Amino acid sequence: MRLFRLALLIGVAALPAAAASAMQPAKAAPAPTSAVKxxxxxxxxxxxxxxxxAIRDTGTxxxxxxxxxxxxxxxxxxxxxxxxxxxxxxxFKATRNLVPEQFDRLTEDVGGFNNASTNDDYTNYYxxxxxxxxxxxxxxxxxxxxxxxxxxxxxxxxxxVVKEELRLRVLAQPYGKLFSLYFPEISYTTHPxxxxxxxxxxxxxxxSIDDVRAFHATYYRPDNAVLVVAGNFDxxxxxxxxxxxxxxxxxxxxAIPRVTVTEPERQTAISRTVYEDNTPLPAVLIxxxxxxxxxxxxxxxxxxxxxxSAGESSRLYESLVYRDQIAQSAGTFLDSKQATGxxxxxxxxxxxxxxxxxxxxxxxxxARVRDQLVSDAELNEAKNQIIxxxxxxxxxxxxxxxxxxxxxxxDGDAKVADRQLADLAAVTAxxxxxxxxxxxxxNRAATLRYLPATPGGPKSDPISVAPTVQVAALTAPTDIKIxxxxxxxxxxxxxxxxxxxxxxxxxxxxxxxxxxxxxIVVEKHDLPLIAATLVVxxxxxxxxxxxxxxxxxxxxxxxxxxxxTRSATQIAREIESLGGSISSANDWDGASxxxxxxxxxxxxxxxxxxxxxxxxxxxxxxxxxxRTQAIDGIGVELKNPARLAGFVAARAVFGGxxxxxxxxxxxxxxxxxxxxxxxxxxxxxxxxxxxxxxxxGDITVAQAQALASSNFAAWKAPAPVPTTAAAxxxxxxxxxxxPRVIVVDFPGAGQAGVVVARPGIARNDASYYPAAVxxxxxxxxxxxxxxxxxxxxxxxxxxxxxxxxxxxxxxxxSASTQTKNPSAxxxxxxIVAEMKRLGTETAPxxxxxxxxxxxxxxxxxxxxxxxxxAGLIGGYVIDDVxxxxxxxxxxxxxxxxxAAVRAAAAKLLDPAAASIVVxxxxxxxxxxxxxxxxxxxxxxxxALKLESPTLK
Length: 952
Hints:
Layout: H1 2-13, E1 42-45, E2 51-56, E3 62-69, H2 83-90, H3 102-106, E4 113-118, E5 123-130, H4 134-146, H5 152-171, H6 176-187, H7 201-206, H8 209-219, E6 225-231, H9 235-246, E7 270-276, E8 283-290, H10 298-309, H11 315-323, E9 327-335, E10 341-349, H12 355-371, H13 376-393, H14 397-411, H15 416-426, H16 429-439, E11 446-452, E12 509-512, E13 518-523, E14 529-536, H17 551-558, H18 568-577, E15 581-586, E16 591-598, H19 602-614, H20 620-637, H21 641-654, H22 667-671, H23 675-685, E17 691-697, H24 701-712, E18 741-745, E19 752-759, H25 768-779, H26 785-792, E20 800-804, E21 812-819, H27 824-840, H28 845-862, H29 866-878, H30 885-894, H31 898-908, E22 915-920, H32 926-932, E23 937-940
Parallel strand pairs: 2-6, 7-11, 13-17, 18-22, 18-23
Antiparallel strand pairs: 1-2, 3-5, 3-6, 4-5, 8-10, 8-11, 9-10, 12-13, 14-16, 14-17, 15-16, 19-21, 19-22, 20-21
């Protein structure tokens, strides 16, 4: 079920651990589904067929508007794979009344956001804005439904952008082909689900402007759409606006083409082996057919999915990753659809392990769930995890709107979103075994082995869309109306915004325990959720000794891998049995432990958090396991041109000083770390007088303080310990390395990663807020200058952006993107020119107002969820920022004027002080780049030494 799949994606994203204070794993009962309140919505259907759902929430200052169309990649016309996705991009261009990119003006430029996605079954357009902009957004959505303008310039530009997206997501990333191309192709023989949604370069090139117009006329119509509005609105006003803007859109008198193909059940197992460049570790994926999402079997399949892959107590993690150390990572995809879906198990193998071993281990776990009943503890844990995930999904208006729209499009009924919770409660161990025996049998398996290519090595088995896949050509309607932009005098402008709705900002209450621990509490009682973050600072990567890059990252990772009274497995099982999760994170200037759990489980979860923070065991076996996983993980990252460019840029900017090395370490540095290094690193940072406990959610200040005292009062600061090596210090400006231009030759790279970076400022610098606005103007958001120049005007990249990493000490300022290799030199020139222009020409106040709105809106959205608030406060603690800035942030951003932005840009964005790094297939761009930078350095990727301050 889609409910379960979405909830589990949320749960899996946060690594788990923690539970009852008892020494033995808690036997948690399944959470009652009544913990999740049904989504209260109204529903109506206009005469033209548009289905409208409204979800009112006066507790927020925002509103989410979503339009989902019942057309997706499965509906791509014959010979036009990727077409629905490319069309999605064109919906942000001009309409009769809106100029190109005006959607960004109406959303991003007022502090909101917009985006879209293309699924096999649907295309959805979603945006969240301040509530007083609702009418303007409804006007715009109706205008692009009724009168989209398709013209040659935008069509060509967006087609180029989609090609760059394909290169970015599929060709440049390790395993991009495995998951984006081969997984669907191997899973279907007849249904058009076999075709990858991203399409192919060749078929994107074949698309014509007439195809686009025909597609819009065929599928983008009111009776093929669902409109959902969620947030703070007046119901009567909303109904009036919808009637005003949407009711007049004509419903065509022709039928909507539907895919009616039925995928036959696979009766005989298939197996394929492919060899691909840029593959750091072997991988195995096994795909099984599952029924349509609306099947009663979707509920037990969803619970089975959680048992196999949700968290560190899941079967795949415990057996393949943790116990046997066969895999660097392992997981599942529960890809349920309108028709036959696919369930996949996969493993990225550990270094030195074979695909055959991974395949055998995956099949053994599938056999175990078929042959034996899952335990009551596993069953209850999976249900609790799903319930918590559903609650998190419903924290925001955007999440609630998506839940309803998905249920309508995929299952045909909005009530399914809540009905699935009852189905969840009824799932038994016997149900799970039954569906495993029905769908996950050996003869129904499609197995794919994905192996590194070697010169002169074996050839791949052919994998492509089967010739038996049934795809229909698009028959263009005879009454297509070619829309052109209205003359200026006739253009209907969006209505003005209404009076602003004041947002409620969190109010943290801070106290201290006698041992120095800060306790920071924010009450938020709308949902029964708690987010807790324990932050320590100073510390983090900046404290790593020069020869032991990754030390603090490894030490932080090991906190959840066993205490003096709990094993790593016990920690994971206990917290996940409560439906919770635990994770650790290492920053440059600090580290944190984070838990998320239902509020009725706060007491046992906090007991586990305290144990993990105060009594880590650092067992040698766990150190060796974590080190191996870290080495494999960085090996994967080093095969990504963009990630590698970022690592090289940090060394170029900071050399051997703090912030210059790879935060997670390099293989050689990780191998040199000893247990005593880890113990000393922990003792230096993890102490109550360096820590803050942040508690956010359905808890009172008194309750939070009591939990903090009962669990952390006994924590004592350890005596100082000697360090084995000196940590690098933050450099003064005069000691920064001289700027360099570095090309890393990466043969076979699907794209070039480009970074232009230079030293920046500390978070407490007086110029932080002007620098933040300058950076937002340069590269934050779709409407930023870099994205405008690189993506929108030229189609050279899927996106481009910049960042000011203001830390306790001056961090880097950087601009980056990925582009096709031949465009690398052109993109470098654009970035350098835009950085320079911002410091030499005063930006218009109107432009800066939109960038300020981007920053303030993003800040406000971070404060909508328990986890978001905890993250904001934790970041303030690490960066040594007063908590009062939670209230002051918007005002300080608003107070920045154009002169301050220009001054900050002249000082901090001047590219003359920047290093330029390009990682890609150098023969395709180095001659052009050398014309501008004759002294550039060329370093083969195989000769790159990230451990060295000079990279050599």
